[in-house]
Amino acid sequence: MYYHVILECKNSLNSKKPKYEIKTDIQDIEFLQTRFIDPYEMGESILIDGKTYDIRDVNRIRIYKSEEDSKILKKRKEIQLENDRARTAALGVFVGYFPNPLYAAISSLEDVTDNLIVVAKGTRVKKDREISVKNEKSEGFKKVFIVHGRDEALIHEVQNFLYKLSLEGIVLNQQLNQGKTIIQKLLDLALDPQVGFGIVLYTPDDLGQISKELEQTSEMVARARQNVIFEHGLLVGKLGMSRVIALKKSDQFLEMPNDLSGVIYEQYDSSGSWKYRIAKEMRSQGYDIDLNNI
């Protein structure tokens, strides 16, 4: 997989016409994160091909991905543009301008900017605690608690995602009872020093409605199982709000608890971009994670 970055900057010669800088063929997503995404989100200067760009001069950053490297993409675009030029010339039409083939090739690829950049330019602030856990790279966090409903496929997908990161996904019903109740098992597992994060899977497993005595409606809405909401609250109480994230998977409206203010939610998508967002959250909480393993 290749990632390509297009940096749109202010042009000192002509302020109305932006200047573009292109960095191609990035295969290390950690490099992409530290050299482009982090500086952009935190409002720091960006270094590209030996030149430093003040973040105030950066209008926009776009990130694309491809299966082929930029040399192949550029050559293919050059052939296409030459064919277009010959075709218009045969019709007696002469076009004086054709786009930069590399820019045209890259900008026509799949745009993954929104999957990787999750906050506006310069709005992400490094918290003292986040800085310390990143520097310490805690060796203890090797497990992640998974709260789930009835979607077995999603459970396995999340477990496989964690496995690729060399982490163990703890699923409650896969643990030995040892004479304990469900609540006792959850509380004991949440106190495991190797558990530093929880993922709560919200799936439309149940249907519910407001009591007819309170509101005249017969509309049923999809919601997660009650045990999911209950266990979500327990995890937040044990691990803290910043260490628990809810993953919503539903093509329809899914009722979410409105009394857990500040809860972090991520939307499931088939492209798998949710994995990067959750991995970044876990890394900010002290997990030693290589995003290239996703």
Q: Could you please describe the fold and organization of this structure?
A:
This protein has 294 residues and is α/β, with parallel strands linked by helices. It is 35% helix and 23% strand. The protein has two domains: 2-116; 132-293, Rossmann fold. The protein has helices at residues 29-42, 70-90, 101-107, 113-116, 128-136, 152-164, 182-190, 226-239, 273-284; strands spanning 2-9, 19-26, 46-48, 51-53, 58-66, 110-111, 143-147, 168-171, 195-202, 206-208, 221-223, 244-248, 254-255, 264-267. The strands form four sheets. The chain has a five-stranded parallel beta sheet with strand order 8-7-9-12-14, with helices on both faces. A four-stranded antiparallel beta sheet has the order 2-1-5-6, sandwiched between helices. A three-stranded mixed beta sheet has the order 10-11-13, with no helix packed on it. The longest helix has 21 residues, at 70-90. The model is unreliable at 128-136 (pLDDT under 50). Keywords: Plasmid. This is Nucleotide-binding protein. InterPro entries: CAP12/PCTIR_TIR_dom.
